[in-house]
Structures are given as structure tokens and as C-alpha cells.
Amino acid sequence: YDGGVGVSGSYFGNTGSGFVMDDVVCTGSEASIMECWHQTTHNCAAREAAGVICEEDAATTTTPRPAADDHKVTLVGGSSVTEGNVYIDGRPVCDDFWSQNDAIVICKMLGFVGGTPTVQSHFGTVRTNFGMDNVLCDGTESTILDCPHDTSHNCGQNEGAGVKCTQVWLMGGHEGNVFINSQPVCDDFWDQSDALVVCRMLGYSGGIPKSGSHFGTVSTNYAMDDVFCTGSEVSLLDCPHSTSHNCEANEGAGVICFNDAEITTGLDEVNITNNERFQWIFDDWGNKF
Asked: pTM here?
């Protein structure tokens, strides 16, 4: 980022009390905050955490977040950039009437295909300078500001709205073992129909199934097993499957995705020109696109 604004008083929610630095005094020329004068002992409480709101040059980007009518959407408190309490222009959103459609709009603003909602400040307490309340999106809006909402509120710090935008990708671009939210898919009953669904989700017209952890062994925290797609599903998560498994590290399901025009001499020789590192899709287990 090119700059930032410092905030204090655990602006983004209370923290633990295991502080690593206190009394930090930087000049602004340091390359690392560890180079600034500071204490490694402290006398701080959970409500005294330092924070920042970073600012970046409009010509650069560091995450898959498209412009959202110049309104900055930030997810705060989550374990990754895919989840957190929702802030619009630095102010939280209240969870009154917060729904699936609202989460879809927020996640689309951030460059994802969709998401699931959280309520009651799921990712930590929020400040009470709420920017929006009673948000009622239908899911088709391009920005949350287009949704009916109130700018006044009756909300407390435990009423922050949040989202979980989940990623699905192939470890390798157009081909690889299939991962859902960093968890592999088991290859039991994995076939052509399953590969077709995965590849269409990623913008390709077809795919070839691979099994036996073809692209390398995987972790054993499988998200899905015994997947039975017909090939007509919009999402892999629409296919009958089991969330428990009996799979080992060498049983990861994989695919080689292709577009019809890119096939040269058959399914074993595929030339992919679109080598995106990953694509984002919606993981709502009940409501998919």
C-alpha cells in the first residue's frame, strides 16, 4: 500500500492481551515496524490494540477486488481475505435483516461469485458508527449501496454483519487436484461428469477427470467424498456427495480443464491458453448459482 491511517482503541474489535509491541515510535522512514523504537513489554488491555486503514494507489491492486463505485468494502476480523465483518468506507454494517442476498452482493463487490452471511459480530465486536442498517438486497445489485437500506440505526457492537466468501481452485491453473476452501476432494466415484461440473465452474467448457492424487499427494482433511454429479449441475456442491470420508493422501480428485476450440488431437493432448492461477466460486451449500 502507499499509505495508511492509524486507528486505536481496538477499532476493529477487541483482541487478546498477548501484545508483542508497545510504545511504538516510528519516523515513517523505516522499512519494517520492527525497526521502529518500541517496548516488548506492555501494560495494555484487549481494548487497546492498534490498527490501520491502508490506502493504495488507484492504479494498483493487491487482491481480486474490483472497484465498487468508489466505495471501499473491507472484511475485518476473519482468518483470510475471504471473510470478516463488513465495513463500508470504514464503517460497519448492522445485521438487521442481513441475508444470503446481501452476502452475495458484498462478495461480488470483492471479486468473488457469492458468499454466505454471518451475524452478531461473528468476527469480533464492531464500533457503533454503523453506516448501514436494514439492508434488503435482492442479490442482483452491483453494489451494496444500490440495495434498500437505512443510514440511521439502532444497533450495538454485537450486531455487525459479516460474510464468508469461499474459494475453490485447481492447484496448477487449468489442471490440478481440486480444492474447496483449501480442502481436497476425494476421488471415490470421481468421473467425467464430476470433472465437467468443476471445469464449467471455472469458465471452461469441459474437463478430464484425474484420480489417485494425479497432481501430487494432498492433505487428508477432505471436504467431499463419493461425489455423484450428472453433469448438469451448476456447482459441484449441488452434486450428491458425502462430507465424511475414508480417503488417504493419494486419493485426491483432479481435473484437466479445456475449451472445445483448444482441443488439438484428443483428450490426452490439451492446449490451454487461459492459465488463470485460480478462480473464485460460491460455496453456499444450499444456494448456488
From this structure: 0.52
